[in-house]
Structures are given as structure tokens and as C-alpha cells.
Amino acid sequence: MSQGFDWIAPYYDSLARLVFGKTIRRSQLVYLDKIASTANVLILGGGTGWILDELFRVNPTCRVWYVEASKNMLDKARARAQGLSVSQVSFIHGTERNLNQITSIRFDAVIANFYFDVFTTTSLGSVLKDITNVINTNSKLLVSEFVEITRRHRLLLFAMYRFFRWTCSIEATELPDWEGELRRNGFTVRDSKAFYDGFIKSSLYVFHPDLPGFSERP
Predict the structure, then answer these.
(1) Cα–Cα distances in Å, from 142 out to 11, 43, 107, 161, 213?
(2) What is the Cα–Cα distance from 41 to 218, expressed in whole angstroms?
(3) What domains sit in the chain, N to C, each tagged with a CATH number?
(4) Cβ(60)–Cβ(52) under 8 Å?
(5) Would you give the distance in Å from CA 26 to the centre of its chain?
(6) Which residues of 193-208 are buried (b: 16+ CB within 10 A; e: fewer)?
(7) SS3 string of the chain?
(8) Strand partners, 41
(9) Which of 63, 168, 34 is nearest to 114 (CA)?
(10) pLDDT tens digits for 20-36?
(11) What would the pLDDT profile of 110-131 be if each residue is shown by its tens digit?
(12) Are 203 and 147 within 8 A, CB to CB?
């Protein structure tokens, strides 16, 4: 899958703007101000790194671990971050499975925008397990994702999944139950906003594994 996104890296941001205009970026900015100034922030699948500029504009004192499976995407993110302190951003080539490389940090916030939709509902449970292993109780999760409400949404998702399975070899063929999996893995939604006629939902979650609904997975 990472090799597929390597191929599309030069065109990824332009393609997103072509389809969604500025909306797809705006959807990812709404909760950045909810991240504490001293937070250790994990960004999963950040792509070309444009969100780093926005995050440090809102919160110039946080520390970031930036995890991206595509080497070409990661190189673009590194180039964008050249003016930032090395101590503020650590880049990791990999996925949530590589979080075990980070042994001394527990994260206060996770940004996972359009990250969960490449997994099946079944595999997403394992992905979230890897994430919850490295965060604190009360850590925040900022997520922007697609939701399927109308027939138009279904048609758009069908076309998008066909395209990304062909170009990037993603495993998913349809939108996973990402909201249900978040609830089952201890995340409680605090706020949500809709974009692009309801096709995109941005949500702020808090990790509360002690609340009813959390199902501990072996």
C-alpha cells in the first residue's frame, strides 16, 4: 500500500483539491486548538505534511511524532518542516505497527485524518489497539473521515475505493464502521462537525477506557 501512495504523492494534494476544493483541508483544522500547549502529538498518515504548518501556527510549543507509510509523502513532509526545530518533530517511516519504536512517550493527542478508511472494520480493531497502547487516559483523538448517508455519498465512495484500490492497493473495498470501532475501543465523542454536504465528518474524541462500552480486546 505504501508503494501505491508513493506513486500518487506528487498529485495527492492537487487531486484532493480538485474533488473537494478547500473543504477537505478546512475539515482537518477545526479542533487543532483543543490540543494542549505542552502536548505530545501523534500524527498518523499525515501525507505531505501541510498540516504541520497549521498545527504549529495554532500551537507552536507542542511536540510531534509524524508517522507516514509512504516514503515519498514523508520526504515531502520533512521538506515542509525544515524550518522547525528537530526536537519538535520526529519523523517515522511506517504505520501504527511501528509505534513500538517510541518507547518513552505516551501521547496526549492523536491526529488521524482520513486514515481509518483504508482498513476493513475487522482490521481497524487491531489498528486502534496499537494506538490505545501508546496514549493516556483522557488523550484526545482528532479525526476527519467520510460518512455514508445519502445515495450520492455511496456513489462517491464506490468511485473512490475503486480508484485507490487500483492506484494504491488499499485493503478496504468499502467504508469501515470507524465510529463503532472507536466506541468499542474506549473513545467517547465530544464534538462533531459536518462538511461537504455531510459527506465528511470531523470529530473530537477523548479516550476513556473506563467508561461503559469499552471492550478490552485480547
Answers:
(1) 25, 10, 13, 23, 20
(2) 26
(3) 2-207 (3.40.50.150)
(4) no
(5) 14
(6) eebbeebbbbbbbbbe
(7) CHHHHHHHHHHHHHHHHHHHCCHHHHCCCCCHHHCCCCCEEEEECCCCCHHHHHHHHHCCCCEEEEEECCHHHHHHHHHHCCCCCCCCEEEEECCHHHHHHCCCCCEEEEECCCCHHHCCHHHHHHHHHHHHCCEEEEEEEEEEEECCCCHHHHHHHHHHHHHHHHHHCCCCCCCCCHHHHHHHCCEEEEEEEEECCCCEEEEEEEECCCCCCCCCCC
(8) 64, 109
(9) 168
(10) 778 989 999 999 999 99
(11) 999 999 998 999 999 999 999 9
(12) no
Q: Which three cell numbers stand for residue 36?
A: 494542549
Per the structure block, which three cell numbers stand in for 151?
Answer: 445515495
The three grid cell numbers given for residue 216, joined into one nine-digit string: 478490552
